[in-house]
Design a protein that fits this description.
Helix content: 10-25%
CATH topology: FomD barrel-like fold
Distance between the termini: 17 Å
Number of helices: 2
Strand order of the largest sheet: 1-2-3-6-7-8-9
Number of strands: 10
Strand content: over 45%
Order of helices and strands: EEEEEEEEEEHH
Length: 164
């Protein structure tokens, strides 16, 4: 990756820790939406699920400033990548700039399988003193993700295919 094609994805956790990932830039519309690609250099088991992303598999990540979630579209390794699943992070304060995509991770996630079935993850890990405003964001996001999981899977599949 070079400076022209790479971008930092920044995950800000509720406990104050920050994690940065260097990704390939696929689409950047500052202040609106973005799509990034991250290739796995080792096999990755997604905690709390049966999902395993093989070495060489990759993620096309989709971000929006007007949605309370982002979506990691997990795909198998080339030459014929296929969908492994859609991992949705419930988030707040998504920022999209030319040099950075960042968001506040609100702990709760939803895994959508290729057929559109949804599994809510990590609710038990929410801090007891979580701000009511964050609880409202989480509830709204969960309603949208679980109630519209098949529609979202179709949307993400269509959008990701633009970059393959």
């Amino acid at each position: 990756m070079d400076a022209q094609t790479s971008i930092v994805e920044r995950k800000n956790r509720l406990d104050g820790t920050v994690e940065d990932f260097l990704c390939d830039r696929l689409l950047i519309e500052p202040g609106k939406r973005a799509a990034l690609r991250y290739t796995w250099t080792a096999e990755r088991h997604i905690m709390g699920t049966d999902l395993v992303v093989p070495k060489g598999g990759f993620t096309i990540s989709h971000y929006w400033t007007d949605r309370a979630y982002n979506v990691y579209h997990f795909l198998s390794a080339p030459p014929a990548p296929h969908t492994l699943g859609y991992y949705c992070n419930v988030v707040a304060a998504t920022t999209i700039r030319e040099d950075l995509v960042s968001y506040d991770d609100l702990v709760v996630d939803v895994l959508i399988d290729p057929s559109g079935g949804a599994l809510v993850l990590d609710e038990e890990d929410l801090p007891a003193d979580l701000a009511p405003s964050y609880r409202a964001v989480i509830n709204k996001a969960l309603e949208e993700l679980t109630g519209n999981s098949r529609r979202l899977a179709v949307e993400i599949e269509r959008e990701s295919r633009r970059f393959l």
